[in-house]
Input
Amino acid sequence: MKPTEHGLLIAALGGVNEIGKNMYFIQYKDDIVVIDCGSKFPTENLPGIDLIVPDIAYLLENQEKVRALIVTHGHEDHIGGIPYLLKQLNLPVYASKLTLGLIKIKLKEHGLLREAQLHTISADSAMQAGEINATFFSINHSIPDCLGICFQTPEGTVVHTGDFKFDMSPVSGPYPDLHRMAEIGKQGVKVLLSESTNAERPGFTPSERQVGEHLLDAFIRAKQQVFVSTFASNVNRVQQVIDAAVETGRKLVLLGRSMVNVVNVSMELGYLQIPDGLLIEPEESERYPADQIAVLCTGSQGEPMAALSRLASSKHPKIEILPGDTVIIAAGPIPGNERNLAHVIDNLYVLGAKVIYGSGSATGMHVSGHGSQEELKLMLTLMKPEYLIPVHGEFRMLYQHRLLAESVGVPSDHVFIVNNGDAVRIEDGKASLGPKVPAGNSFVDGIGIGEVGNIVLRDRRHLSSDGMIIIVTTLSKSEKTMLADPEVISRGFVFVRESEELMNQIRELVLSTMNGLNEAERSQWSDIKQTLKDNIGRFIYSQTKKRPMILPIVIEV
Amino acid sequence: MKPTEHGLLIAALGGVNEIGKNMYFIQYKDDIVVIDCGSKFPTENLPGIDLIVPDIAYLLENQEKVRALIVTHGHEDHIGGIPYLLKQLNLPVYASKLTLGLIKIKLKEHGLLREAQLHTISADSAMQAGEINATFFSINHSIPDCLGICFQTPEGTVVHTGDFKFDMSPVSGPYPDLHRMAEIGKQGVKVLLSESTNAERPGFTPSERQVGEHLLDAFIRAKQQVFVSTFASNVNRVQQVIDAAVETGRKLVLLGRSMVNVVNVSMELGYLQIPDGLLIEPEESERYPADQIAVLCTGSQGEPMAALSRLASSKHPKIEILPGDTVIIAAGPIPGNERNLAHVIDNLYVLGAKVIYGSGSATGMHVSGHGSQEELKLMLTLMKPEYLIPVHGEFRMLYQHRLLAESVGVPSDHVFIVNNGDAVRIEDGKASLGPKVPAGNSFVDGIGIGEVGNIVLRDRRHLSSDGMIIIVTTLSKSEKTMLADPEVISRGFVFVRESEELMNQIRELVLSTMNGLNEAERSQWSDIKQTLKDNIGRFIYSQTKKRPMILPIVIEV
Output
């Protein structure tokens, strides 16, 4: 494949028409620079899959050209796929200090830390790969140390925003660098890749600082323990929980592996300000009165194995929620998680807790980390791009982003809504839809990656909806006569004790089907199997309106 | 079981701590009257289950006492379980004209219509069962012909609200009968059972009429075909779509089996006003220009098999959505359906449609059919109940309903938050938590009911997450020697072609395990099976970190 004999190529390997597993690359001649490598969680139609990461076939095919991975920030949908990438292609990784700290946790878990080539960058850094020059600029999001990227190439400037909002009063980290963005825009941007998460949401996303004020109010009013659940990776919000605990004289307990990991790394690297003696171990909490305890925990999405869920069902070994305690859900539910979270809230009420929850910003305990429509327009106005590729969003978000771009003067045909695997080519100053590159989902299942194919998933779905019936028949090698009664075994189909009659009927039908075959037919295993499948399947459907998987096994002795 | 030797019993068989499958009963001495019999859809942790209906063991045990089923209105969560109930207990059914019409559709599908004992009631009716007297009152909801129930018993008056809002300008059907409710309240209500769906929502739910105005605006602006998707059972909204079509000179196509059924029944019974010639068949639509066509379809929740989903993926055989068409989602997503619906909206945008959607009332195209906090307080103020049993809601909704009751003067310990199966006993004027009755979920799977037990569901979940491995070994009856190489077959585990080595290793381990057993061990099938399960399971986990179901089968010949 030689997609870039001419011009500059910009392609998505993940992150468009989906939320999650962001991965893009730009290529000029023989140099490829990759941006981000995220993961996402599977939906329920992918049973048994643990994680989804981008398909990197194109990079493997062109590995002698791949110069670097630049990572915009430390969230899972931007870093979660890195271990699986580096296992196959150990390329140099460039990221800011905090982002690199979070990447290191992952690499350590995968035993990849020693060999990894990690480089710290900042808003003042520059890097070069062939004729591609990259510089960076500071941007706001719900985690500190986020970078946007400005690539200068012989075909013009390409800007990737990373995830951003314009928080003019950020909790920590630098202000959004409007001056640098204005400067980049003034010098001319050929293509802007801008995130689209909140392209459907009117207005301007409120400052994270607003959440801090509501948290403090709730801490002051609480007469007993206070529990706050949020994403560990929302480091800015974690800081505000810490501040509220300090302000109200409470010790702070951390619960949940990712919370402990992220807080430790952020603290070590100077991104969280935590007074000495604030943090205590869960088992120490008994020593303090209830109004001197705050707990910061994972599980804000109602994930069944996370700390909040275990607290809510009184299954946490070290800490208990008591009647009158306050529980704050300081996060919005990600679509698909509503049911789990509602279940956790119900359980918290059953325990007698005062629960502060609510969709979106209703309670003031959550604001988005992503810019709304006016902020996307502000970015477009600053960058004045000739072309826009909306990224980081499902189709309707990309589509709304296009409407926003039109409203600030970008012509509709200068906006490329692409699929994963689509490349946009810039050549002689003009952009056009370029060649396709391989892209898709790689499934991580157990410790393996990639070996779960569509057939396996189809089987799992089939098994899970109607169960299976196994039929074992034993034939003599020589005369093809049946040597034993056929065995019929079911799993996940019907409860056998209550369906004895049905199972007996199936057994009889297997027997009569086998007896109905002549010797010639019995010599063809595939014929036996197909006939059994057809007869038994038809019978079961007529009796139960179900279609279990039917698996005939023929043994010759 | 003799739970009512004394006093009056009020119990929930379904509908509390859940949304769905409402079913309650009241019992005085030897007379039981049942209220509603709904169904609900399973969540994804119940693979293969089609429907959930209430467990009616208590009614079957006491069938000589069960006098009647009264149905408050025609929604699935109040009528969906009726066929499964009547199959086991053919009791007389009392409901309003429209409600009965919708019940008849179900009974016909189940072949139960001929034997059913159906009685039409209205706000003016009265019925009697032993010492229980029932009268009814008109109430508003998103479907016409809804009734609240007022039971007079020797232990006092018990009121069941049914589902309600206070829509003072209803689209069709009578106004909420405030005067009758005031009268009931004035005469004294011992216990109120009131619905809690929107107990978390502040304020007053807007009138359904507001949706009509937004629909008409959108119809007027649309230059091509207009598609509206809503619940078929939201008959009031259906009327407003009809009105908008009439007003803008469009013909109306109905898509979706339940839409056609509900519209036909409602029209026949006089609950929908449809001018002659308005409705056309899907295939006739080609004869009209695009701006004279409107389509009313099912699928507002993104259900993959419903009309809207098929239209969005261009799989509908008779009608096509073209670029520039308008699609209106006139419904709010039920928690858990957000992902499916988002996927449908994405597909509609890909087709070039203009999509009007949005959560809750953001677009004006949806208002709830359930009263918000101020309306629940209005009901409590009208009825002035001595005791409240909040029903029809998950725990946090029941809990919020209790807080609302307290705010209007009902003492906290006069509010009973109950579980399905809890009974409240009224005796000598005092209410207390009474005996437990059996209650729970009955699963409908295929055409059977109840035969899917927990073991089957556990198996299905296991199969769906990690797949299965079947090991067949053949022994000689006499010497217990192996007569053929063991067969190892996997389904839903790993993609065999890519994992040949692993499968070979498993085969060898089976062989060596079998060879390692002596004759005595081989005579005990259970030993063989357990040893195979242990060895193979351990090996597979060490290699893959997965735990497929392992199913050893021993054949003796």
